[in-house]
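Support reply, case 0932

Customer input (verbatim):
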Amino acid sequence: MQILLYLAPIILVIGLVATGRVALVHAGLAGLFATLPAAAVALHGQRDLLDFFVIESLKGAWLAWHAIAVILAGLTVHHVIQAAAPPAADTPQSAPVSRHRQAYFLSFIAAGLIETAIGFGVGFALAIHGLRRLGVAPLPAVAVGLLSQMLVPWGGLGIGTVIGAALGNLPLQGFGLSSASLMPVFLLVLLSWFWWWSHRLGLGLSLRNMALDLLWTAALLGLLYLGNRYASVDTAGLIATAPLLALGTLLNRNRPPLRALLRLALPYLLLIAVLLSTRLIPPLSQTLQSIAVSKPFADMPAFPWAYQAGVMLLLTALLYGALTLKPQQIGGVLRQTWAAGRIAIATTLIFLVMARLMAASGIPAELATAWQAVAGEQALLASPVFAAIAGGLTGSNTASNSLLLPLQAAMAGSAGASVLWVSALQNVTGSLFTPFFPGKIAMACAFAGIIGGERLVYRQVIALVPPLLVAAILITLAF
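Our regenerated output:
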């Protein structure tokens, strides 16, 4: 009965959304209210309830602010780019343009580069925006755009993986290398997802394009492995994507003239330059991280106002807007940003407060412990399921690892399995399920221009869940 109480928030949210009659934000509120009695029971009288709910809710809201800052900044960048975009012009082409190839490079390479440099789902926004420009309808654009999140373990310069290694007392290089070594299995699933959508959307799926996809993906995986092996976790994602994007652009015979190409790429180049310069130049990075830092809770991440990705994104948007927009356009951009983002902001806030209350009360650990007592030697098979739930509930690799990596490591040790490999599976599986977080789905809907269409999006993307879970479970069997 107690376990059912602990599961009630999750079951309630899923059940309400599945009816198709309840908006995600309202289902989240119901789940949040259901979390209150569950957390009260899980505390076993160890803390004053009022103090617990106030403090932990504030911590959840503080975590949410980090995501909200990026949502607002990302939407601002998106609407500034839209407002400043030059009229579409016909350009002579030396060969027919393959929309399949463009969609592949956009979803796997370009958006992957943005995600590894910035994190926080910004690559998702880029992928959706680019797919819409290719003529892909909003719902399929979100479904294909999910592929932009495949490098989340190295997103935001690998911060979630770095934290995971510290939580599990694991060697960082070995942890990153093990995580990279698991990616080929999952990328086969994600490539199949891309091919299915390419066929359905008429993007130009062919045996030749499939072979090229496999070749470029193998190159990406090879560079990712080499980056983790010979460089560092925080730069491995950039090493895997930046050379391929540059090569793909050089090989593209249909690229626009240099001037037009630079104009189209300017906001993204500016964004990458700002973020990478503030992260890869140690003196500048250290200085910015020490200026105007807000840290209201000792056990919560700080918010460095001169360094945080959302702030940098907003500054980039303002700079690009100042260069390209007329003064009378600015008000419209801000109104569009708020109109598109308010649902995503509310959803993110609700679900992260709910996740924080559950984590702080020990509910995830009790659920996993109860399962281990029931399943015995087979308990490890549920490891990817727990990772998927944690990733899907929090939308953050860092939060997913914080919730479950120590427990997963303990389960691996008791089962006689490799702690390093089981922890790496937690890292990768949890990351691959972060796009299913309701807040990210709401954000994706905002970027695609389908406000309130979360239920429709889930209907499109839920089919990806089973093959990802099967792949993770098959890997677990090898341990």
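We compared this against your earlier run and they match. Two observations from our side: The two ends are 33 Å apart (CA to CA). Confidence is low (pLDDT under 50) at residues 90-94. Please reopen the case if you see a mismatch on your end.
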